[in-house]
Amino acid sequence: MLKKNIPYGRQNITQADIDAVVETLQHPYLTQGPKIDEFEQAFAEYVGAKYAVAVANGTAALHLCTLALDVNENSKVITTPITFAASANCVRYCGGNVTFADIDPNTALINIDAVRNLLEASPKGTYQGIVPVDFAGYPVNLEELRILADEYGLWIIEDACHAPGGFFEDSKGVKQYCGNGQYADLAIFSFHPVKHIACGEGGMITTNDKALYEKLLVLRTHGITKNPELLHENHGGWYYEMQTLGYNYRIPDVLCALGLSQLQRADEGIARRRAIAKRYDEAFADANIKLLPPPQDAGHAYHLYIIKANNRKELYNHLRTQGIYAQIHYIPVHALPYYKELYGAISMPQAEGYYSQCISLPMYPTLTDEEQEFVIEQVLKVAK
């Protein structure tokens, strides 16, 4: 009988990963060593960006981005309500205010028309930036969003935590990979265990803007620099200056060694995720189960596989009795107590409708065919 313990996501640690970590432990550096630079360069190459900055986690990455873009108490930033709270919290960390734009019900991504409506309803200069989210691994069309952002003078931070390896095709048919910096000023990724690349904890910022890159390097390490070209004065080889208020958002060498090892099989993981998604699509095609987004071939990185069910709670509870630990992604951020107390009751009909039905099924490369068939069987018993 099938062992019943199937989570919605799971890391995959191989012997190669373990060997990479052990090798790093046997070298002199645990922090601020060569593996950080190696990981940054390899990751930048993987997504097609010029620069990458490795940090402690995805939330630290978001915070550093808002700091680098000078978000402050006078800033207003637009984001989606269907995301993890950190996509909005990073603005609040800097004292700025968040405005939520409702989602497209077919994709659960931020609705670009809703963003336009917000911008048109306010004087130019009201908003400073947008934080779109490649939710579940499905990429936002940043080419379209960039046109709108440029019209209103806004920056873009792409929250690509769910989407390394994902892409959309631009108006010229060119694949634009998540985090490549072609349309977003900055992009961020997470290396939490259930993500595509697992470091335990960790994050990455990518950009094509050298000035932002250099600013991020200083902000990541207490606002301190030893770069002779940036020093106000120089007392010798030991000398450093704290030139701004920064944070200790560094990531250790040992975690970067794990990330490098995981990155080497990232494409393999994406291929397996897409194969799992295709099998789910086929199984649910004739079952009157709403898929989100509808089945398609290109671009989706499939951090999550989401269906919508009218009896979501019944389905969730049934799956748990069978040892299938499906999850809900996410409770709309505007409905969380902190934001309700801050901004009052806000109506986001599409986000709220999505939340009432969404459920994330098991999706990770080591999910076996047998386990997936069991999940499908149990979903079909209850979902409607």
Structural notes for this entry:
The chain has 384 residues and is of the alpha/beta class. The longest helix is centred in the last third of the chain and has 19 residues, at 266-284. The mean pLDDT is 96. It has 2 domains: 15-263, Aspartate Aminotransferase, domain 2; 267-382, Aspartate Aminotransferase, domain 1. The radius of gyration is 21 Å and the shape is globular. It has helices spanning 15-25, 34-47, 58-68, 86-93, 112-120, 142-152, 210-220, 253-263, 266-284, 312-321, 337-343, 349-355, 369-382; strands at residues 6-7, 51-55, 76-79, 97-100, 129-131, 155-159, 167-169, 175-177, 186-190, 203-207, 224-225, 241-242, 290-292, 305-308, 324-325, 358-361. The protein has 13 helices and 16 strands. It has a 7-stranded mixed sheet with strand order 2-10-9-6-5-3-4, sandwiched between helices. A 3-stranded antiparallel sheet has the order 13-14-16, with helices on one face. A two-stranded parallel ribbon has the order 1-15.
